[in-house]
Amino acid sequence: MACPFSRHNSGAQIITRPAGAESDVPHTAAAALNLRHLSEAIGILTSPSNPSVCAALQSLLEEKQLTEFRQTLKKLPLAEPPQDNSYSYLDDIVDLLTETNQDSSPLLEQVGRRLIQQCLGHLERAFRSLGPDMQNLLTSLDGVHDVLQGDEEHEGPEEGSFVCSVIAPGELELSFSTARKGVVQVLAGSLTELAERLHGTQAVVQTIKQDRRDQSGMSHYLLSISIPHLHSCQDEVESEKPSVSTSASDLRMCVETMCKAFPWHFVLDRHLEFTQLGSGFMRLFAHELTQYGRHVGTYFELVKPRVPFSFEAILKRSNTPFLLAIKSVNGSTDSKAAEGMELKGQMVFCPESDSLLFVASPFLDGLEGLTGRGLYISDIPLHDATRDVILVGEQSRAQDGLKRRMDKLKSSIEEASLAVDAEREKNVSLLHLIFPPDIAKRLWLGEDIQAQTHEDVTMLFSDIVGFTAICSTATPLEVITMLQSLYNQFDKLCGLLDVYKVETIGDAYCVAAGLHKRSSTHAQQTAWMALSMIDACSSHKTHMGQPIRVRAAGDPNE
Fold first, then answer.
1. Where is the Guanylate cyclase domain (predicted)?
2. Per-residue pLDDT tens for 297-328?
3. Which of 38, 125, 245, 326 allows an S-S link to 250, with CB 3.0 to 4.6 Å?
4. Which of 4-18, 107-121, 484-498 has the lowest mean pLDDT?
5. 457-557 placed in CATH 3.40.50.2300
6. Which residue stretches of 244-320 are H helix?
């Protein structure tokens, strides 16, 4: 059975792992991990598809679990749920259990656990790539989920979104929003199963707050996730930490060095005012700081994530990549050139100074985008991959330009080749009209043609009676028109009687039978040709309106 997901159905086969199976299975035969696997893994958590939920529920019922719900669940389409994007299988489950006054949470949590059991064989590497433990896995899901939603066009029901915050080691809060009923309970079961299967830890997931649906139809939940194992691990790490001074005087890096090493960074206080700026930002905003103040909103627009520009909102989304765009400050020359330039980076909370550190890299489209913003290659630090991206991008553009020219040249060569082929076909056709096929082929290949003697051949010679008198009173065009009309008729007769036209000289029309193809009836064919030519002349007139007469004689060579 396929393991389908709402918007990431790969058609891959599900590998069901027994409850006590080991998780460190070798992956030598597994497919390479890619973005599609991450997309499927996050999809199973935020918006499990109808077929996958149906398969998980049916699997539980086949194992004779959920006995208290079995009678109610008989009303569900267990065989195959409707293939409709607007239909939600989970909604039906919740509605049925609500009608019978049954709590759906235990059932849906078991469904969530079974979803992970069924799909872990295919998606284990994707889940493991997110973090070494559940805390890191959950905090990284936020940023990865935003990237996947931005890169893909989704259809059907809207996927859930979530933001994970670390309250203390082993204590997390998950803000989850979804338009579908029951997804939050399925998510709780899935996270609990993930913790056990991947990391051998117990995770306690509880819903501590629920808001009603808003105007967009989304319901908002706040979940508490407790991982006791991380408490003890953190205590062990703290006890093993070497004693390190926290005094600023013992940290051998001055602000100037920091600003030089990270030119595109700034530090904000609780009021979102700059307390430190990297050298790149200083070159852009140094002259405006005294006049327009130090508030970050004066110089930057928050593009992503879509949250208020406040300290608490930013702190809550610190696990998400931030995208800022530079604003022009009252027509300043430096900031005007850089207006609209986007910088993508990370917001880091610094508890020792109660401030936010933003470390970023500029989004630039090649060298032209760099110089057009009033920047230089030296403004990009050596450790920043943006420098390589710009230079490699320029090299790729040059290669693309060369490739386009080569493609254009190839296209012109192909067109010329087709034209040559067309002319060749014309020449071949012309040779076939003049010579027998075997002679035409040898002439085309440039071979010498040796004279041959043919036995059993009959020649036919014909001319027009009074042709000289006709030409004396007719114009050249009238003569040509008369001959063309008559000889076209003779050519058709040659094809019908399978004789070979040797040549035409003036009014003389010469035909051979048995020359191009051996024939035992060559004499008869020639006679039929002569009679047919005489008969055909009755329908052709001279320019004076008189019927054309033709003389024909045969010469058999036996």
1. 458-558
2. 888 889 888 888 889 888 888 888 898 988 87
3. 245
4. 4-18
5. no
6. 255-261, 279-292, 296-299, 311-316
